[in-house]
Amino acid sequence: MNPPVGCPYHKISEEFKPFELSNPFPFYQKARAEKPVFFNQELGYYVVTRFEDVKSVFANWKVFTSENAQSPLKEISPKAKALMETAGMVGLSGLSGRIPPDHTRIRRIVSMAFSMSRFKKLEPRIRELAIEMIEGFIHKGETNIIKDLAYDLPAFVIFMLLGVPKEEVQQVKSWAESRLLLTWGDLSEDDQLIHAENMIKYWNYCQHLVALRKDNPTDDLPGDLVRYQTEGYEISDREIAAMCYSALFAGHETTTSLLGNGIRELLTFRESWEAICANPSLIPGAVDEILRFSPSIVSWRRKAVEDAEIGGVPIPKGSNILLVMGSGNRDEAVFPEGESFDIERSNANQHLSFGAGIHFCLGSPLAKLEAKVVLEELSKRIPDLRLKPNQKFEFAHNTSFRAPVALDVQWQNQSVK
């Protein structure tokens, strides 16, 4: 793809590796300094790296629409596209890809069910799960903590919220991974077809969740939304299923990443781990610093619906935009010594990791609650927790979702409490 005429193409675009997330932060720092808004030819996107520019685009939903937020980053092959269209998956979105007035209408209704009071009701069960899972490996002296804790716990929590039976968790989670790869990855045509088939199964499952609650009301998110529908609130079965489709993915994939990134950073910066072990009241601030320093989602997308400007750079109508929150979160204009990890940072909660504006993540309180509970129980029970030496961290090949695939840790059993 050739860059648009007059666009801010820069040599830094050639250095940008959009699907390589092992350590993108040195590049982000360089981009902020040299060319904070540039056109990337590989993606065909304008890339935005400074905090204020990212935040301003999120805030201006009328000019920078979210309609491409859930669109596949790479063009879907004709066979995979036809398969998904036949299954009714065209234009499917929960909230992140919608704009007012539909976004306003649906978000208001969903907010009634996705409330802090419902999240707080889950806290005792979250703690029970965390303790149960930690007790399952605590006497081994070592574990892959992604596999034995971070992978399953958020899934169990969000699936409790949505009324998914525990025995179906692994299947649904595998379908959600297909969604990640098909939407944000760089797949071959054959792989696209495999993942498209999984996404259809995932969508059919979500429609079934809604249908079940028509005859058998339940105390969970889809049950609440079906009840609001019967009370006269304007929300369709398809919209309820789309909310389940989005929540079942976002509600665990990103929290798994938050836990994996968080434990890794805390153990890498050992003094931070020791600090929360000695003083658990530091944990909420530590969670926000993890989200700032090593976010689960490093970038998100928007599209210009008219000629515009970002950071002094002209953006033609119809342009796709990649907002790099992982870069903005380290912008020293907002976060002094932004490349340093500091769990007592006073403004860590200003990070962009949950977005901003009308699409700010509804599930952010739940994600932070889960991380707080897990870190409380883990630091209390295994204060000697350490990274296993000489391990190489691998990250899924995509533009947006960043977390270690595995995280091997160890400890002395005599230190277990």
From TrEMBL:
Alphabetically ordered keywords of this record: Heme, Iron, Metal-binding, Monooxygenase, Oxidoreductase
Positions in coiled-coil regions: none
Transmembrane segments: none
InterPro entries xrefs: Cyt_P450 (IPR001128), Cyt_P450_B (IPR002397), Cyt_P450_CS (IPR017972), Cyt_P450_sf (IPR036396)
Top-level division of the source organism's lineage: Bacteria
A Pfam family matched in the record: p450
Family matches, as Gene3D superfamilies: Cytochrome P450
PROSITE patterns: CYTOCHROME_P450
Family designation: Belongs to the cytochrome P450 family.
Full protein name: Cytochrome P450
Native source species: Flectobacillus longus
